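Colleagues,

For the teaching module next term, I've prepared a clean inverse folding example: a structure given as tokens, and then the sequence designed for it. I'd like students to try predicting residues themselves before seeing the answer, so please don't circulate the second half yet.
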């Protein structure tokens, strides 16, 4: 997951590679001005006049033993994010069904 300080936005992702490797892929994509890179897209969309002063922060939210658990956690994190937190992931990245929390579907009588 990465975010930056002056605006509550985040990109939530999962990878089987190390955090440093994945973060550097994002940084290289941004530096290479890759149009599909979420960091670069955000800078172009929101910070064209101040691109050099935006600081991104990367963080690890968990370690997982298998890909399915890691992917499920990513889906949960996206679904449960704060309403105040904009997300930079593109809809094409959501190639799995929306997660519905079991607690949301319980009916008490």
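(Answer key — instructors only)
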């Amino acid at each position: 997951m990465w975010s930056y300080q002056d605006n509550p936005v985040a990109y939530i992702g999962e990878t089987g590679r190390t955090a440093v490797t994945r973060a550097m892929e994002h940084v290289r994509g941004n530096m290479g001005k890759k149009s599909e890179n979420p960091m670069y897209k955000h800078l172009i969309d929101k910070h064209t006049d101040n691109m050099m002063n935006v600081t991104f922060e990367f963080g690890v939210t968990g370690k997982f033993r298998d890909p399915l658990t890691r992917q499920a956690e990513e889906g949960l994190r996206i679904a449960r994010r704060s309403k105040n937190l904009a997300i930079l992931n593109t809809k094409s990245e959501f190639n799995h069904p929306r997660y519905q929390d079991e607690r949301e579907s319980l009916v008490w009588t």
